[in-house]
Write a structure and sequence with these properties.
The chain is of the alpha+beta class and 667 residues long. It contains 7 helices and 37 strands. The chain has a 37-stranded mixed β-sheet that branches.
């Protein structure tokens, strides 16, 4: 019993002593003096101005603490704003104080506003707060602390990079930790959570970081898991992205992770993508590299127009990030339907990303994955402005390719994009029984496109049919193009087209009219014009054809058409108005053959004459008009000339015969 009394007496004495201390502190506490002394100490130590506008108060229960309201801190040796807070509370546990130990019970900060700046030389505006550098080979002893928890609510963070001229602002930031103990023996944090929410345009987003625990012993760090989750919600788009890192261990110089898992579930209107990727991960701080050695997973893509919904895209490969440069490189493979893609890439980051790409595709039908084309009243706009931000070069190889119904094999393309200009040169492909090679360029500054193409041995009939859906001419031969255009819409580009073009074809036909048959049927109508619409079954054969075009303001002018067949010779001149899809062209058909062939005996009456055939109207429905009105007089004149020649020849023969007779009699 005596022992209990003595313990009670000691305990009571300690309580009285504590009460006396608290009473003394309360009686002698001078908030104004403390604020002034704190500001002077901070200015002397850091060169920054500390201002406490609100109250400064002591609290004794349930723990000994200090409350601070409305405080701010300036930049180093400047009055410029650096950080502020609305309220803060720091408390320490009382009992450890009796054994001369300081154990922080909690740190609570509300309304923290912090601005971090990296200047043009790469220096941070907190470098002075991080402490002076230690002499070579020396290391600063780690600070010792024991904090039951840190709570930061409603914080705002601003990051400004003056070299990149960029600013990032994060609001409504909450940060919470569990029990954290640090010192020479290591570091243990029982849990760490960070979350924020905000607005992106009209949509709301959240971002959360969750680390169940972190441990450091000596140089070794370990964490069972690090989870990051971001959400985006809006009327037109929704997305959930998650990133989980597991089994993290190693040193700051070499950190390994058992796995990385990325998840994505996003939708924009009726377009959706969902899937995941997983890989081991190795982080080497010494070489400043991050390696994802064996990526596996895939995504399901669902959108209207796809041949299969959803479209499954398996993904495998490897990625290496070198954040010292910084740069990212790798090799990714995927496959869908009958297509296999092997992509090798290298991205170097600087003022802008410099992308290198090598893409190998065995077979690709782009048309299968394009949405159906709807009839549009408005003109299709052509916007190349996205190219202004592109800095890339590389090669593309495709075994079989179909785009906009145009089919090609063995496609080889080299490209280089910089400063808003893309050069696609050289490029080549096997095309419709022949080959195409040349160069192309796109200029985003002027919305200009230029092409120089050489087509050799091309079968033009299926080519034109696949491009325009029309059967206009057939034959095999060579075509050359040197054209350029610019404009904000497809129509404007058609109307500003300029350059030159040429073609030399063999063993073909002009489709839509059989000139020989038309002449045969029009024989009885000499003296009157004959007009007929184009016919899908009619054609005028030729053994060879050549033509050149000068193009200006969307109109292609030709004056040297030359085509041959056993029966006809074709010349011609006129305009092809590409901008308005109109033809105004005159074919000049001359009958040169005998009764055999396409013409037959019915065209003998036209032999030696040139018959004008005017082709006019829209591209999709041209009309052919045989201008025969002057052929009667022309034919009569031709016969009169023939008769004159015949009489002349007979007269000359008669004179020669008489002269021979007289000479014979003379001798």
């Amino acid at each position: 019993m005596n022992i209990l009394k003595r313990v009670a007496i000691v305990f009571a004495a300690l309580l009285l002593l504590a009460a006396a201390v608290f009473a003394y502190l309360a009686a002698t506490f001078d908030a104004a003096r403390i604020k002034q002394e704190a500001a002077q100490a901070v200015l002397a130590k850091t060169g920054r101005t500390l201002t406490i506008e609100g109250d400064l108060a002591l609290k004794f229960w349930p723990s000994l603490g200090v409350d601070v309201a409305r405080a701010s801190l300036s930049e180093h040796e400047s009055k410029q704003f650096f950080a502020s807070l609305d309220a803060a509370h720091v408390s320490v546990r009382v009992l450890p104080l009796l054994s001369k130990k300081i154990v922080v019970d909690s740190v609570d900060i509300d309304g923290l506003k912090l601005t971090l700046v990296k200047d043009r030389d790469g220096h941070l505006n907190i470098d002075d707060l991080l402490g002076s550098k230690q002499p070579s080979g020396a290391t600063a002893p780690p600070p010792e602390f024991d904090v039951a928890g840190i709570h930061i609510n409603n914080a705002q963070l601003t990051w400004r990079d003056e070299r990149a001229n960029s600013t990032l602002k994060i609001a409504d930031l909450d940060f919470v930790t569990g029990h954290a103990v640090g010192g020479k023996d290591g570091l243990t944090v029982d849990g760490l959570r960070l979350s924020t929410a905000g607005k992106l345009d009209a949509d709301s987003f959240t971002l959360a970081l969750d680390v169940p625990g972190i441990t450091r012993k000596g140089e070794q760090f370990s964490a069972v898991k690090v989870g990051i989750k971001a959400t985006l919600k809006g009327a037109a788009r929704n997305a959930v992205v998650s990133l989980d890192l597991s089994n993290i261990e190693g040193t700051l110089q070499s950190l390994k992770m058992g796995g990385l898992a990325l998840g994505l579930d996003a939708a924009m209107g009726d377009k959706k993508i969902k899937g995941s990727l997983a890989t081991p991960l190795a982080l080497d701080m010494e070489s400043k590299s991050l390696l994802l050695p064996t990526i596996s997973g895939g995504f399901d893509v669902d959108m209207p127009g796809l041949p299969a919904r959803p479209l499954r895209l398996p993904i495998s490969g490897r990625i290496k990030a070198e954040y010292g440069k910084p740069a990212v490189s790798g090799n990714l493979l995927t496959a869908f339907d009958e297509t296999h893609i092997d992509a090798r890439f290298n991205v170097v980051f600087g003022a802008s990303a410099n992308i290198g790409l090598e893409l190998d595709i065995d077979k690709l039908n782009v048309d299968k994955y394009l949405p159906p084309t709807a009839d549009k009243q408005a003109d299709d706009r052509v916007d190349l402005s996205a190219l202004k931000r592109l800095n890339a070069s590389g090669t593309l190889r495709v075994g079989e390719l179909q785009v906009k119904n145009i089919k090609a094999r063995n496609v080889r393309v080299s490209f280089n994009a910089a400063h808003g200009k893309v050069d696609i040169a050289p490029h080549s492909a096997d095309l419709y029984g022949g080959q195409v090679s040349g160069s192309a360029s796109l200029n985003a500054s002027s919305n200009r496109i230029a092409l120089k193409e050489s087509l050799r041995g091309i079968n033009v009939d299926p080519l034109i049919k696949d491009i325009a859906g029309k059967e206009m001419i057939e034959g095999r031969g060579d075509v050359s193009l040197d054209i350029a255009t610019q404009g904000d819409t497809v129509t404007a580009m058609k109307k500003s087209l300029s350059g030159t073009a040429g073609a030399v074809l063999r063993d073909g036909a002009i489709k839509g009219i059989n000139i020989a048959q038309t002449l045969r049927s029009a024989k009885a109508k000499l003296g009157g014009d004959v007009t007929q619409a184009a016919s899908a079954t009619d054609k005028t054969d030729f053994s060879e054809l050549s033509a050149s075009f000068k193009i200006a303001n969307g109109v292609a002018r030709n004056d040297d058409l030359a085509a041959k067949s056993p029966f006809l010779r074709l010349g011609g001149n006129g305009d092809i108005d590409i901008g308005n899809s109109q033809l105004n062209y005159v074919l000049k058909a001359s009958v040169v053959g005998t009764a055999a062939g396409q013409g037959g005996k019915e065209t003998d009456a036209l032999k030696g004459l040139t018959v004008p055939v005017r082709v006019s109207g829209p591209f999709d429905k041209p009309a052919f008009k045989l201008e025969l009105a002057n052929l009667v007089s022309d034919a009569a004149k031709a016969r009169l000339e023939d008769k004159k020649q015949e009489i002349k020849e007979k007269t000359q023969q008669k004179v020669q015969d008489q002269l021979k007779g007289k000479l014979k009699g003379l001798f």
